[in-house]
Amino acid sequence: MADNHVKEAARQLTICNACRYCEGYCAVWDAMERRTEFYKKDVDYMANLCHDCRECLYVCPFTEPHEFSLNIPKVLAEVRYDTYKENTKPSFAALAFDNSWALSLAVVFASVLGILAIAYENGAMSLLVLPVSNFSGIMSAAFVRYSSLLVYAFVIILWSIEGLSYWKSIGESYHGALNVRATYAALKDVFLHRFFRGGGAGCNYPGEKAGRARLLAHPLVIFGFLIALFSFLPYPNLTTYIEIAYGTGCAMLFAGTAMLLYMKLVSNKVPSYKRMNSLDYPFTIMLNLTGITGVAMVLDTGHPFAGLIFAIHMAIIFTVFVTAPYGKFVHLVFRYEALLKNRIEEQMT
Predict the structure, then answer these.
(1) Does the pLDDT value for residue 236 go beyond 70?
(2) Among 28, 69, 90, 221, which residue is least crowded by beta carbons within 10 Å?
(3) Same domain for 30 and 153
(4) Same domain, 243 and 267
(5) What are the φ/ψ torsions at residue 89 (nearest 5 degrees)?
(6) What is the number of domains present in the chain?
């Protein structure tokens, strides 16, 4: 099926390259115009360069019912999904992409049971329901610190292996990733969301009308996640200022993911790919739950059930990271590498 997706994408891109009506809309069209033929490495690269802004679909004169039946956002989503599976390490773990809901729910359930077992072993079950302002009685600072380091190492190692696999599959050498100027430019593209603007008026998402809703929602998610992540590092020494920062980050994360979920639900389904949606929903919902339980934990500190909320919050965070190499979270790695390759190609032209 993956080969069929690549062939269909190559067919559509060849037609687009001859037409060029969408020239300048986004990085996909710039990359396309640098090529006369589209091999698997090119299609895999351009699939992850696509930000699913969809403007090309709505202005295209060759969509259905035209015999060319062009639908670039959908066919690139199909290939993008395949690249996630093809570069998963170990390879048998690719099955997780077809069972994202089951994996997420299983890890959450196991994590909650694990935290309850730790609380029971520490004789701290009562702290789950009694008013508490310090959670170290439920999970010690040493346990949180070392388990977090273990999980972070797990994610970084697997993301690195999967990222190197993808980088090689799109025809790049390892030393190319060390291009300082291109790296700086690609990181700027990531954090400034350069390609969430479509042809200038914003993404045509969730519907045909261009707007900047995604340009607002996605940064809320990214920066909210980063603020919350770095705010929690001093645990259990969470001062008032750190708690405010953590609560703010979680609130941003909740707001951003809520917006993305709403847009996903009401979006045009013609350019979407069902299997990609099956990755989007579990990942976005887990981040949403991370945000809302984080806010609840900060607001409820010192009140009844604060410990229980803390336990649930930690279980969800653990799930987000453990499933990171085997779900939508991995798009962060592949998208960055596609943007980096785009910047390298720009330097060469």
Answers:
(1) no
(2) 90
(3) no
(4) yes
(5) -130, 135
(6) 2
